[in-house]
């Protein structure tokens, strides 16, 4: 059975991805601890990123290569310095993926250039993730698509036209399934800028599975996205925000990831299907509806009035809607107080 049938589908519970990113703080031991913690929290997959500072940018610490944005988490660093700090050494990939497999999770990665795709292919990753900043890199999209493996693409900053081009290129190059993740590329993001109503619109527009790459604090946006049809969820993950890390400010801790996994599944289960009327389990509760009862002893020939006929619980009598029909009618036999009303009485 293909991956897209077993993992990325509205028929299955939401697929939860824990994103390690650079939160390992350049410690393989810490990276493996993050894998263990993600598995214990119930994540289905753990994602890392495959690049080096040299494959990402130039070693220049001025002009546009230097981060001066006042509200940036990484203000005061050059791009090169940031990627040196955040990258996951390529020799760590295999032990990280092996630990994922041991713990019953899928290990995979985000490639950032063609060399990283080739490297990840040598490790046999089952699918790929494309970051928001690379969703317009059509040569990279084409390269990944030629692996004939599913591709998850974050949509941050992309216009409809750009996404249309990206999805078409991926499919035409052989990608068997594209999954688009609604994403707001600010770190952290706010609920007000998340715009998750875009999720069902993307599903209809591009005819693909959809999900959420969530950079907000907490799990509220994630749970809400499930109700809108999100089938894949990605959240950054860390052992402890207090210990720091390049993405620590907007990463979930283990107890939060566990809550996300549990509540996402509950939200998905609650979607159910469009249905009216009592469910099988509700039928037993129907006896607690109101119905019409005789509330005073009555003799043959007595007339139903508002004093001796009322709508009360339980629900064994006629429905309350018939009270106006019954008022003024005579009973044909003696009736004790507390008797459920039926048509044979009149």
Mean pLDDT: 95
Strand order of the largest sheet: 3-2-1-8-7-6-5-4
- CATH secondary-structure class of the largest domain: Alpha Beta
Can you write the helix and strand succession as a string? HEHEHHHEHEHEHEHEHEHEEHE
How much of the sequence lies in strands comes to 5-15%
Identify the overall geometry: elongated
How many strand units? 11
Please, what is the CATH homologous superfamily of the largest domain?
Aldolase class I
Structural class category: alpha/beta
Unreliably modeled segments: 1-5
> How does CATH name the architecture of the largest domain?
Alpha-Beta Barrel
EC number: 2.5.1.97
Keywords: Transferase
GO molecular function, one term: N-acylneuraminate-9-phosphate synthase activity
Pfam family, one: SAF
Structure description:
Keywords: Transferase. InterPro entries: AFP_Neu5c_C_sf, Aldolase_TIM, PseI-like, PseI/NeuA/B-like_N, Pseudaminic_synth_PseI, SAF, SAF_AFP_Neu5Ac, SAF_PseI/NeuA/NeuB. It comes from Heliorestis acidaminivorans. The chain has helices spanning 3-6, 28-41, 53-56, 79-86, 90-102, 114-122, 138-145, 160-172, 198-206, 220-227, 254-271, 323-326; strands at residues 15-19, 45-50, 106-111, 128-130, 151-154, 178-183, 209-214, 232-236, 291-294, 309-312, 339-340. The protein has 346 residues and is of the alpha/beta class. The chain folds into 2 domains: 7-51 and 87-271, Aldolase class I (TIM Barrel), CATH 3.20.20.70; 283-345, Type Iii Antifreeze Protein Isoform Hplc 12 (Alpha-Beta Complex). Helix 2 (28-41) runs parallel beside helix 5 (90-102) and helix 7 runs parallel beside helix 8.
